[in-house]
Amino acid sequence: MPITVPPGVVVNIKQDKVTISGPRGELHRRLNADMSITLENNSLKVSRPSDSKVHRSLHGLTRTLLANMVEGVTNGFEKSLEIVGVGYRTEKKGDNLVIHIGYSRPVEVSPLPGVSLIVESANRIKVTGINKEVVGEMAAKIRAIRPPDTYKGKGIRYAGELVHLKAGKAGKAIGKKE
Fold first, then answer.
1. Residue that is last in its domain, among 74, 91, 120
2. Do the beta carbons of residue 82 and residue 90 sit within 8 Å?
3. pTM of this structure
4. Considering its fold, how many domains does the chain have in total?
5. Of 46, 74, 102, which residue constitutes the final position of a domain?
6. How far is CA 24 from CA 77, 129, 130, in A?
7. For 36-61, how does the pLDDT look when each residue is reduced to its tens digit (9 = 90+)?
8. How are beta strands 26-30 and 10-14 bridged, if at all?
9. 112-142: per-residue pLDDT in tens?
10. Does one domain contain both 95 and 134?
11. For residues 143 and 101, what is the distance between their CA atoms, to the nearest angstrom?
């Protein structure tokens, strides 16, 4: 399936290295040398040398990586995180993020290169950038500071993430046995 290259995006292919630049920035990636990448009529096409399982897998991977690069330099990527819990909050300190999440000291998070952290409110964080992998990695690092608790649901979660809560101890709900 060809990838359409929107106007304003420049694609440069040199053997196994691809550079894509657009209005939001520039991305470089070294891809597998077995896959042949061609640019024709403002569309990128990936072709494989044989129908072996390895080449079929590499074909899909290469196509998806290129599509994500084109999407990143045109629109960018973003992940939203929510902080749930009484007294849990976040604030911006320069480029860094300071998260008060129930530990004895606040946790300071510095962004990875090419990523910006935006505090929408005291309990909402937005991670934005042009590289999908780096944006996802940064969001996962922030979430790993305190993942959602399975009993009360407190912690850092992705926006819209469904957290199944456990019932807890059965004896606590009924009362003490005499």
1. 74
2. no
3. 0.83
4. 2
5. 74
6. 11, 9, 7
7. 888 888 888 888 888 888 888 889 89
8. unpaired
9. 998 999 999 889 999 999 999 999 999 999 9
10. yes
11. 11
